Fold this sequence. Notes:
membrane, DUF4492, transmembrane, transmembrane helix
Amino acid sequence: MSRPNLLVRTGRFYVEGFRNMSGWGKQVWIVILVKLFIMFFILKLFFFPNFLKTNFDTDEQRSEHVLDNLTNTK
């Protein structure tokens, strides 16, 4: 009898752990997921606009701007 691969076993491990978790543990995970959603989607959308995409037209201009700022030693 062969064992399932590592990815399947890891997935089953987390699913089984979540099923057996107490009620407050599930609530904590929901809070964590909501906070991660807010951090990565809402804050990124409103507070961290893509500066390079809005101010430069081509990839070459963007790379030149980044290179100039990284190598500029005032």
